[in-house]
């Protein structure tokens, strides 16, 4: 039996995934979380074999969850199911130890098969994305990415500094570095370009 935890912030999709996987004889859905922090708590409590997660969620993103699982050396394999068909996201996912990366518009039967493949020790990656992922490298480091994401959400340097426990000067440096690396004129353009490339 493949024991699965779902992490998806959209209630209808969370229910649909749970119902879909529940119809499989060899897959048991242990639980479902609506945000990244709740998923992290449930992972430690339920100890599933696999985490099926979206990327964009409140609290922790799916990629941050995967990084945390990797950092704590938990024996849980991660499969991302997302709308983000961008090579930059896939590269970051692979760097975080993710074993599966599927798009939400893939046929439903592909998901159960992908989970079986990952559970057996394989990888399940959308083939078109796999090609694209080895294109342009992500120039941002984690701190630049965090600062840029928050700036794109409308936060000031002071608000970002408070949220990340940094000085305003350090935040301004991170944003300036990100703008320079992306070759754009300001933080909003940097945010847009980085999102478009899948680097945020």
From TrEMBL:
Residues 133-198 form the HTH luxR-type domain. This is Response regulator transcription factor. GO terms for biological process: phosphorelay signal transduction system; regulation of DNA-templated transcription. PANTHER family: TRANSCRIPTIONAL REGULATORY PROTEIN DESR, TWO-COMPONENT RESPONSE REGULATOR. InterPro entries: CheY-like_superfamily, Sig_transdc_resp-reg_C-effctor, Sig_transdc_resp-reg_receiver, Tscrpt_reg_LuxR_C, WalR-like. Pfam families: GerE, Response_reg. Keywords: DNA-binding, Phosphoprotein. The keyword Manganese does not apply. It comes from the Bacteria. One of its GO terms (molecular function) is DNA binding. The keyword tRNA-binding does not apply. The modification 4-aspartylphosphate is found at residue 54. It comes from Thermomonas carbonis. Residues 3-119 form the Response regulatory domain. Gene3D superfamilies: 3.40.50.2300.
């Amino acid at each position: 039996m493949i024991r699965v935890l779902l992490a998806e912030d959209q209630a209808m999709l969370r229910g649909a995934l749970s119902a879909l996987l529940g119809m499989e004889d060899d897959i048991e859905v242990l639980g479902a979380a609506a945000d990244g922090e709740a998923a992290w708590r449930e992972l430690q409590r339920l100890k599933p074999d696999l985490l099926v997660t979206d990327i964009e969620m409140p609290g922790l993103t799916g990629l941050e969850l995967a990084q945390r699982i990797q950092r704590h050396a938990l024996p849980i394999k991660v499969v991302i199911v997302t709308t983000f068909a961008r090579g930059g996201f896939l590269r970051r996912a692979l760097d975080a130890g993710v074993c599966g990366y599927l798009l939400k518009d893939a046929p439903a039967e592909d998901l159960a098969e992908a989970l079986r493949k990952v559970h057996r020790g394989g990888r399940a990656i959308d083939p078109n994305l796999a090609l694209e992922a080895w294109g342009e490298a992500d120039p941002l480091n984690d701190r630049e990415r965090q600062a840029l994401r928050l700036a794109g959400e409308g936060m000031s340097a002071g608000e970002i500094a408070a949220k990340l426990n940094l000085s305003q000067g350090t935040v301004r440096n991170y944003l300036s570095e990100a703008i320079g690396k992306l070759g754009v004129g300001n933080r909003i353009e940097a945010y847009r370009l980085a999102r478009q490339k899948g680097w945020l």
